[in-house]
Amino acid sequence: MGKSKALSRVRAYFEEGGFEQDLRRRVAIQSDSQTAEKADQLHLYLDRELGPSLVRLGFEVRILANPKGAGPILLAHRHESDELPTILTYGHGDVVPGHDHQWREGLSPWELKIEGERWYGRGTADNKGQHSINLAALEQVIQAREERLGFNLKAIFETGEERGSVGLREFCEQHAQSLSADLFLASDGPRLNANQPTLFLGSRGTVLFSLEVISREGGLHSGNWGGVMENPAVVLANALACLHWGEPGLSYGERLFGWNTLEVLALDAGNPQKPINAIPPRAQAFCNLRFVLGTQTEDLESTLRQHLDVHGFEQVRIHMGQIMPATRLDLGNKWIALIKEAISKVTDQKIAVIPNLAGTVPNDIFADVLGLPTIWVPHSYPGCSQHAPNEHMLTPIIQEGLDIMTSVFWELGELTKNT
């Protein structure tokens, strides 16, 4: 009866417009962490929006400075008993820039708009909509259990995820005791597809780097010098070609979840806006490597250097960026079966269990720094346009997500410390 009551409450909350009201408020806060002029919006989102919501649910809340000087970080703790298990959850209140003028006519990144099954707005999919689902489910379970959860809950909300989670690792190292738990459980990223509830247990790692060829100080006339002098754009194109290949015979799933992929994000040579008949003096490519657990990233730069040299590209310069490690929870971990069973009680769909997300979340911090088993339950889908104009989430996923998280939180409340 108790769980049915919680599910009835969360469904009524959605049908009566409660979820729309909460998400509309959150989307309207322009918490863009990549635009310096909007830095105040990051603190506003934590202080005026998430903080009061968590206090209402019985959390003790602190908003603390980022050790790297980036956006603030919120810590919250709801303690019921030392005899109960403790869950750590996570979300990020920051979003990417709105790119206001690129959205379809009639849409704005900072105003929630519902058209059919699509809920448009910046952060709907990444990540305001997702943590709003989890907070709503928590509230209904607490109320159905008469102000109890049945487990201890800690929460961390950062405001710098879209900048690479700057300072989060150092923050978690400093506050490791406050963040100790039995399980990490959060929501971000997409499902396998819109119709299939999904668990992922880690993420591919990522590293940004650039390759640069500088042949001379200035351009040269393409008629007088073409075919005689080195063209850095051609050199760079061939260097990229020797790095980028697809392993034959792999399925889409294997390529996304079980393999490494190199993508070129941007190219720079000459002046594409106003090309002139001149060989450019330099060329640069900005690249992204996504990699799975087991990849030897410690020697990545030297491996890349050796490969380019062997292929005759000694003149290509390498500029390495920060590496975010890959992580993956063992498929035999007991928490996986428990969470999967809780989800199966509210859906007839087959549940996908993916060893790691194809993209990258700061999972290594929770898995490696805090030493926690990590499970993610995403409430988005691959076509959500996150990081792009017209970002949205879908009504069926919202409704199913509310049911799923209500069931998960309810079942976690049935455990004891020794379960």
TrEMBL record:
Query: Where is the chain membrane-spanning?
Result: none
GO molecular-function annotation terms?
metal ion binding; peptidase activity
Entry's Gene Ontology BP terms: proteolysis
* Keywords associated with the record: Hydrolase, Metal-binding, Protease
Q: Which InterPro entries does this chain map to?
A: Cyt/Met_Dipeptidase, Peptidase_M20, Peptidase_M20_dimer
Q: Domain Peptidase M20 dimerisation: where? A: 212-312
Pfam families, alphabetically? M20_dimer, Peptidase_M20
- Output this protein's name: M20_dimer domain-containing protein
Please give the organism. Answer: Steinernema glaseri
